[in-house]
Design a protein that fits this description.
Layout lengths: L4 E6 L3 H13 L2 E6 L2 H10 L4 E4 L8 H11 L4 E5 L4 H9 L4 E4 L4 H15 L5 E4 L2 E4 L4 E4 L2 E3 L3 H11 L8 H8 L9 H15 L9 E4 L3 E4 L2
Parallel strand pairs: 1-2, 1-3, 3-4, 4-5
Antiparallel strand pairs: 6-7, 7-8, 8-9, 10-11
Length: 226
């Protein structure tokens, strides 16, 4: 099971971490967050990442020194994401090897676009996700099995992305309804959800009667298969 990209988020504002992690997860990114330079370097010794989002001001250390240390040891793109938007800070960050510099407040969609650009330049972009024999190209919005396109409605595709972006989680019916509400301009209720899950399984599962991608968790809801 693959993600679009694995992101290390170095930020000490818990509210920003929570909000941005939730947003990026829905976009298909796997995000792990730390708040200090020590935690950053320790985690990089244990895990590989495709991109780092880095604040300048941290509880311990600072983003400039983190960037210098990371660039000296790892082939990892770095985007500064910080409230320090003055010319000196921007130039300093870029001179230290940062791949981009974004000032707070920022628009989340713009951030994702610039993340994709940095990942493409670094050769780390992974727009395709594979699971259970199907391939989902999240940039083109195309789902295929054995190079044959599977045609999904807008709401079916949105439902598949919801499962994809909540890997490992059991999603209740109410959570699914909240995620796909009016996604295709249609009213979605509990009965409609049942119909769409059935239709989606018929299109993406090898055997809809024995699903391997969208699994039923009895008495709780559904989850994505491994």
């Amino acid at each position: 099971m693959n993600f679009i990209a694995r992101v290390l988020f170095v930020e000490d504002d818990e509210q920003i971490v929570e909000n941005l992690t939730e947003f990026l997860s829905k976009e298909g990114y796997l995000v792990k967050a730390v708040s200090t330079q020590r935690e950053t370097m320790n985690l990089l010794e244990e895990e590989a990442f495709d991109l780092m989002l880095l604040d300048v001001t941290l509880k311990e250390g600072n983003g400039f020194s983190v960037c210098t240390a990371v660039k000296a040891q790892y082939d990892l793109p770095v985007i500064f994401l910080t409230a320090l938007g003055d010319e000196f800070s921007v130039v300093t960050g870029l001179d230290m090897g940062a791949d981009d510099y974004i000032s707070k407040p920022f628009r989340p969609r713009e951030l994702v676009s610039r993340m994709r650009s940095v990942l493409r330049r670094a050769g780390k972009n992974q727009a395709a996700v594979e699971i259970g024999g199907i391939r989902i190209d999240t940039e083109k919005g195309i789902v295929t099995r054995e190079e044959q396109e599977i045609f999904l409605s807008a709401l079916e595709y949105r439902l598949l992305l919801v499962f994809l972006n909540h890997r490992g989680m059991v999603l209740t019916r109410s959570m699914l309804l909240d995620e796909i509400w009016d996604a295709a301009g249609d009213f979605v209720n509990d009965n409609t959800l049942t119909v769409y899950i059935k239709r989606l399984r018929e299109k993406i599962e090898k055997d809809p009667q024995k699903p391997e991608i969208i699994l039923t968790v009895r008495g709780m809801g559904y989850r994505l298969g491994e």
